[in-house]
Amino acid sequence: MNRMTTLMNERNKYLVKYYNLNEREMALFAQKNFDSLDAFYETRQAILDVVAELDKKIDESLMSLTVKEVEAQEDDIAELLSSKDSIIERILDQDLQLLSLIEKEKSRVMKEYMDTNLNKKAVGKYHSGAVKRTFEQEA
């Protein structure tokens, strides 16, 4: 393996780390545990930053190779690219599931918040005498 294929393999390892991180967090989200959401996003971003840096190094390495060197490793490169594509497809599927779990929880919290506000208003009217005036007006 030359530098470029080593870097490509390393990038794929980080993409698998990203995938595994998503899997662990999705299990927590499914249990309505969103306590580590900020740390989850920070870790994801850190992994993406490493992947972006590896992509730059892969591009630089590719530019330094001759056509013959690339052709000699064509099979390895094709396999690594296919593996990367497969991992990314699975990550995209995960992200859709993660977004769905987060949106469901967000909707639940918003509904709970709205219900709480309605209850506060109802209790406030009761304590303010608004209900008493309504009864007096009816009589």
What is the percent of helical residues? over 70%
Q: What would you call the shape?
A: rod-shaped
Strand content: under 5%
Let me know the largest β-sheet: none
Walk me through what this model shows.
This protein is mostly helical. It has one domain. It is 91% helix and 0% strand. The protein has 5 helices and no strands. It is rod-shaped, with a radius of gyration of 27 Å.
TL;DR of this structure?
The protein is mostly helical. The chain has 5 helices and no strands.
Main attributes of the structure:
mainly alpha, 139 residues, 5 helices
List the helices and strands and how they pair.
Layout: H1 3-30, H2 37-64, H3 67-72, H4 74-128, H5 130-138
Helix pairs in contact: 1-2, 1-4
